[in-house]
Amino acid sequence: MAAELDDINARRRDVESAILIAAEAQAEAQIAGGARFIFVHDPSWHPGIVGIVAGRLKERFNCPVFVGAEKDGVIKGSARSIPGLDVGLAVINARQKNLLTTGGGMLWPRVLASLQVARRICVPFWTPPSLRRPVSRALLSCRSTR
User: Fold this and answer.
1) What is the dihedral of CA 128, 137, 93, 132, to 10 degrees?
2) In order along the chain (146 residues), what is the average pLDDT of each group of 10 residues?
């Protein structure tokens, strides 16, 4: 049984590593383009890994990160933020404006959130620089009071 668990864990690490490499490439391009937050997704990514990848990208780039796995036109994802920036509130605000189909954040430490959005809304909204700027401003306005 221990050998079987080791094998499963090794496969998970391989999947995580492959997703992280692809996500880092997307993130580097966004940061080079002046992005103040990162939004990466891919239809081939496993939804059970996106939170781990979001955490690793946040640590590397020190900015808010949204990582999504796409399936059937829906992107389900996870967000991580830096201290003092309430990504959960930003996700809730986006949901209230019908930019997300579901989403919410953790009350503490206010740097974790989950989200779901239809690809037809998400990709046009998050990718063009002219639309990323207002999202950056809105995200930065979600300063945590803690």
Assistant:
1) 10
2) 88 93 95 86 90 94 88 82 80 74 63 61 48 59 56
